[in-house]
Amino acid sequence: MTDRRPPIRDEGEIPDRLAEDLRRAYAPMGRTSNRLDRAVLDAANAELGRAHRLAFPRWAVGGALAAAAALVLGVGLWGMRSAGRPKALPPVAQAPASALPELLDREALADAGIAAAEADPADLNGDGRTDILDALILARAVEQRADGRTRARTATITAELDLNGDGASDAADVEALAARIVALGRVAG
Amino acid sequence: MLGRVVGRLAALSPEPTDQELLDAIARADDGEGAFAALYERHKTFAMRVGRRFAGDEAGAADAVQEAFLALMRKARRGMRLRGKLTTWLYPVVRNHAARARERRRLAPPVGDEPAAVADEGDDLASVRGAVDALDESAREVVMLRVVEGLSVAETAAALGIAEGTVKSRLHAAVRTLRADPRLRAYFDAG
Amino acid sequence: MRRRAALIAYVVGALGALAWRAAPGQEGGAPDAAPVREVQDVAPEGLQFIAIDVYVDSGERELGAWQVEVTSDSPEAKLVGVEGGAHAAYAEPPYYDPAALHESDAFDRVVIAALSTADELPTGRTRVARLHFMVEGEPGFRVKLMAAGARDATPIGAGVFFEQTTTGTVEGGA
Q: What is the count of residue pairs from B and C with beta carbons less than 8 Å apart?
């Protein structure tokens, strides 16, 4: 692979030979063992395999829901006619009415349930759980951007942080994320 | 196996971009091959970051594995890059590595293996010694900017700091390195 | 009715206590240095007002964020107030779910959390929050640290403790 590293002459202070030796000196630190390579790829493949088993095309999900609705309706109508009196249809599953801000992105929610549980965009440090440390990462990034210390256009981390999808990441996102972190999960009312 | 899947992807596109590979994972279109290619492309970067912040081999390996699994999960939902993938990977690996180091501090492992030490000549040992002696904020900038070859903007994005801060830290780091007698030959020759 | 009167009496008392604590010279470093213990024995019968001071010990590291779960074994406990801590960085009340305060007759748990990007952050043991409860019968509380982080949001090993104080009693209960 060609070396795409840009020249560093814009700072113009590190001699080329020193820069080259720096790369050589730290190159061995990047070596990974075969065992690690295998572990990462196996874990990823297992993850993908699980996703394949759970992921269905949206048309298939829609078709299945339509078929189920038709079946329920048909059974209901048949029951009403055969019994001669109205019969309650099974209750439709409803998402709990929650006053908490919705922070999971809609793509994830549209995915299989496990995807929504495992892949939380608010898990900013990628440790598999969303807690106050993620809110602190967000708060620091928002503060740095507000101070002009980070360019929003180039700063990946701040760009990832528009959690409620309103086009901007700001203190409201921090508040919303913190509110979600301490939420007790009770249904209001 | 890795070479085979990377070769298969290479046959489709001379050198797919990171975004193309992420898209392939999201579409479940040869997702295994796409992930393997991404891992192959960025594992050395991730491992260098992991080793620097975890302080031991096992912690670094854990951090790399956790980071790439997080990447896989994110890619499956459809991940849009707004810069280099390394600017996303850097804080994730660093945080996992710091967590591993913290775990190790709380429960020191028995018979822990030492971190890999490069078999290097005197010059390289001097270079490493001088850079390792920098304070953490200066060392991070030198590593990302010089060793990893990120641009100023990419370094700023990875560290969550302003581009001007990257430049000033780099200048300060170079000033320190210039004063280090171990590196005099480099600067005198330049 | 009696419970409401007790609550009003408590609020008035709490405001008085706050005014006293806000007076110059009253807020020293003592709370952070105080040992964790029950300050006052409580009568198991009747209505009591309990203050739970939550402490986080981050050792030598600066405390940039913390998250704690407080649970109660008491069948008749009600969370009636949430205050901030002793250090300026955590002087504001922490984040918590208002449902724990308003919608729960029988308190069982609350998650409280706070973060700070202030220049000055506490180290060592610091009081991060004070919770006020109204309890009938024997009070029993537990605290559990869910997360603690340094200034840069990296996780840190920290300890969590609480100190329980009875701030008032009403004979005979509700």
A: 14
**CATH number of the domain located at residue range(s) B120-190 in this protein:** 1.10.10.10
The whole-angstrom distance between A83's CA and the closest CA on chain B is 48
Provide the residue range defining the domain that includes C35. Answer: 2-170
Q: What is the pLDDT along chain C (174 residues), one digit of tens a residue?
A: 444 554 444 444 444 443 333 333 333 333 333 333 333 333 445 678 889 999 999 999 999 999 999 988 776 788 888 899 999 999 989 998 888 876 555 677 899 999 999 999 999 999 999 999 888 777 788 899 999 999 999 999 899 999 988 877 765 443
Chain A neighbors of C155, CB-CB under 8 A:
127, 133
Contact between B186 and A15 using a beta-carbon 8 Å cutoff: yes
Residue C7's CATH number: 2.60.40.680
ipTM exceeds 0.90, yes or no: no
Fold topology of B1-112: Rna Polymerase Sigma Factor; Chain: A (1.10.1740)
Give whole-number Cα distances, C138 to C7, C44, C47, C50, C173, in Å.
19, 5, 10, 11, 12
Question: In the complex, which subunits touch C with 3 or more CB pairs below 8 angstroms?
Answer: A, B
Q: Is A113's Cβ below 8 Å from some Cβ in B?
A: no
User: Chains meeting B at 3+ CB pairs closer than 8 A?
Assistant: A, C
Q: How far is CA C59 from CA B132, C35, C80, in A?
A: 26, 16, 31
For chain B, the structural domain boundaries read: 1-112, 120-190
